[in-house]
Amino acid sequence: MADSNYQAVGGYSAYASEKAAARSRRSKWIVIGSVIGLIGIIAIGVGVGISVSHNKKSSSGSSSSRAGDPQQTDPNDPSTFVKDSRLHKSFYGLAYTPEGSLMPDCGNTLEAVIKDIQIMSQLTTRVRLYGADCNQSALVLEAIKQTKTDIQVFLGNYPVPSDPTVYTRQRDIIKQAIQTYGTDHIAGVTVGNEFMLNYLGANSATDPNGPVGAQGAAILKADIQDTRDMLASLSLPKTIPVGTSDAGSFFNTEILSSVDYGLSNVHAWFANVSAADASAWVSNFFQETNVAPAAALPNRPKMYIAETGWPTKSSDASNANNGASDASVAGLQTFIDTFVCQANTNGTGYFFFEFFDEVWKEKQYGGVEGWWGLFNSDRTLKDVKIPDCPSP
Ligand SMILES: *[C@@H]1O[C@H](CO)[C@@H](O)[C@H](O)[C@H]1NC(C)=O
Ligand SMILES: *[C@@H]1O[C@H](CO)[C@@H](O)[C@H](O)[C@H]1NC(C)=O
Ligand SMILES: *[C@@H]1O[C@H](CO)[C@@H](O)[C@H](O)[C@H]1NC(C)=O
User: Fold this and answer.
1) 326 touches 368 (CB < 8 A)
2) What value does the mean pLDDT take over residues 40-61?
3) Which spans does this entry mark as compositional bias, Polar residues (predicted)?
4) Which of these, 94, 145, 154, 223, could form a disulfide with 188 (CB 3.0-4.6 Å)?
5) pLDDT tens-digit readout, 259-300
6) Measured from the CA of 270, which atom of ligand 2 is nearest?
7) Does the CB atom of residue 125 touch ligand 1 within 6 A?
8) How far is the CA of 322 from the centre of ligand 2 (A)?
9) Whose atoms come closest to the Cα of 27: which ligand?
10) Which ligand sits closest to the CA of 287?
11) For a pocket test of ligand 1, which of 135, 146, 185 has the largest count of ligand atoms closer than 8 A to its C-beta?
């Protein structure tokens, strides 16, 4: 079951190489996508915000506050944050990784997560995390507690095929966070982020339900069952749903049959669809590729869109568009205007991608990777108008 394409050289190295390899595969998948309609591989590296962690650590002492951080009427009480009238709770959910949540550097801070929760709580009642490293589960739950906000969190465990300890490490962090904070603000535990996509890519296969897919699925399925066992061992007052997240076309049927929910990445931008057509495209893709197949399974897992959004710029000119799809603020506005309220009306659960521009991705990957935020990296709102149609 060891992934022969990778050396198991400790959690971090395996993790990093996995991500680098996945990253390099992306363009290939996008091309394949044009043929078989698979899309949505942006999340490479999404699970891990970092970049500023070094700055934060080295500049300790000086305030780490950012231009867009909310003010508090009582500096000692994070629940007294001043609301921003431009924001509305119109988003079903937001995709989120606290900055500085990549092993081994870490560097995230409760102070920064509190500011993030103060802003996000004005946009949504649901946040999904990708992984659990660097104590991010507890930081988010603590921030919700201190801000007294009504956010429900989908905790995440981001396993890698080549090193089982990456899974167990995160499982134990999640367990501890649940023991500390209880279940009131936990909506689910997601085991796997693009696990099948990465496993297939690492083993030169493409079919999540083929023989190689079955090998990868066996690993992931064991992790999912292990998480269920861990939750059961806690005798919790409510049953916490367990799910998995993957690229839209990479769900293995046996995995879907063993989860309560599936989260699917669906990105029109990578399909060369224009901003004007993106909402309809995302909706169709999600219905056909994810919702309908899931509804046909005996366990009928609930399907959500794990990520959908629109980049506002590219670090280089060559990636500034994909055919018809331009990276622009106007494009983001168009997508928000045509997707958010419709999806709310249609009963589609989605996690908008994403809350803020992630600087580390811009540095590491270039292109559009670092520019998907509704907010700039300093947490100031981009020049977009947030729709006002309360999400259910
Ligand atoms: C994790 O975060 C919580 C909340 O801030 C804190 O109480 C706890 O000490 C942290 N644990 C570690 C290992 O940093
Ligand atoms: C999207 O457009 C780019 C740039 O025009 C092109 O290189 C790529 O092959 C197209 N991809 C698809 C999936 O059509
Ligand atoms: C909502 O449903 C309508 C009617 O089926 C469909 O045309 C539209 O694309 C859907 N939009 C979203 C965002 O789900």
Assistant:
1) no
2) 33
3) 70-79
4) 154
5) 999 999 999 999 999 999 999 999 999 999 999 999 999 999
6) 13
7) no
8) 5
9) 2
10) 3
11) 135
Cα of 8 to ligand 1 centre, how many Å? 28
Atom of ligand 3 nearest to the CA of 284: 9
Q: Is the pLDDT of residue 51 over 70?
A: no
Q: Given ligand 3 and candidates 308, 338, 341, 342, which is best to mutate, with the most ligand atoms within 8 Å of its CB? A: 342
